[in-house]
Task: structure prediction
Amino acid sequence: MSDVKLEDIVSLAKRRGFIFPGSDVYGGLSGTWDYGPLGLSLKKNIMNLWWKMFVDDRDDMLGVDAAILMNQKVWQASGHVDTFTDPLVECSNCHNRFRADKIDTSKCPTCGKENTFGEPRQFNMMFETKVGPTNKLDLKEIIDGIEIKDGKVTLENGEEIPTKQIWERFHVIEQYSKEQEAATSYLRPETAQGIFTNFRNVVDTFYPDVPFGIAQQGKAFRNEISPRDFVFRSREFEQMEIEYFIHEDTWKESFEHWKEQWHKYFEALGLPKESIHELEVPPEDRAHYSMRTVDFEFDYPIGKEELAGLAYRTNFDLKNIERVSGKSMEYRPKDGSAAFVPHVIEPTIGVERAVMAVLTSAYWEDKENDRTVLKLPYDLAPIKIAVCPLAKNNPELVAKARDIYTSLKKELGAVLWIDSGNIGKNYRKMDEIGVPYCVTVDFETLEGDTKDTVTVRNRDTTKQERSKVINLIALLSRA
Ligand code: ATP
Result:
């Protein structure tokens, strides 16, 4: 477990505009979180780094961005309608609900009473929704010209019957529920299905050679029984997934390849090697589609928990699509060898869990210098440089600082202008949001031998160096 306390990260995230509880002003909505300006940049940087390493820097990867709402057949064919469940138990004393596999069911974690849980029931975690204007059970909409008074309907022959009976009498409910069923959709619980359903489209338009991968980033939704631990277990979150299509014979080497790739990504996120643990998931705990799964666990403040996964999903999904849609998912190699339905290796990660791992790794109470620092890797830092004029009331100095700020911003983008408070306080504020460098423009910048030089202060070492303004971009873009 990490030495960092969860409450310190949650408090910094809120205080400094990274992450806020969702719908906070109305009392919140459990399992939802809003990203503020800095959190959004951090999250985007984490996602862009993933995209760069796994898509842009490779020549065997293509991206898609599929719709979140999909035909319900997708989720029937994939097995999610039947098996995407968690075991739910409810305490008969305090009525709190829990995931049976995450607690000791002999004693309620909330009220402490013993033996208050019955047998778990399987709870499907997909959010069901309706597509189209069909979700109001309103007789007036269903039967034209019907009059309802005091809960009764008057028929043409003058007979009055309670509205309740009319359903049975005219089989309206039957027809209505058929319509409802046809309109059912789900907020996707994983992005992977949007990749599988586009396999044929991508193959037919890009003719990639196997092995190749399709990557997707986007929202996923799970109606978690007990969302908890900050963003770790959310009901709405973002996933980054790859389906890497291979010939069955090569699955073992491909699996090893993606294991290595995961470790490279974790290193780029600044996660210490010793905080990552591989867990070989036993068959009874694997998802219904997986022949092998390795979870990558991280030492979070809440303990060692899953950050990312790697699964050998065989050709379970493409075969299911063939079965339900009747369309061929076969791949025909260009060399004329036998056609086959590709198997897949699936690296998957939740962005929220990456954000939490990055914050945990970067959080540092620097006792010696009495400051809190987010030691974010340069690529992930929401703001790369802060520019501060030493004195706010000297127009010449402010103008010079403003010039430097403008040219740095043009080149590097994420640059902050900061001219309030004293310089020491500013440095501390910038440390807390992980700004790697502060550039201070002082009187020496304006004249003498030191003209056009500034002080560059390093976040991690607090060391200050004098640098020529013209060298700044090369120095700070670091590359
Ligand atoms: P867990 O066992 O923690 O519920 P899982 O094994 O069901 O997770 P997967 O189905 O493998 O998770 O999902 C892929 C990735 O999506 C996970 O590795 C994790 O990073 C992320 N993830 C899953 N559920 C959530 C959630 N509720 N909130 C945030 N991220 C999640």
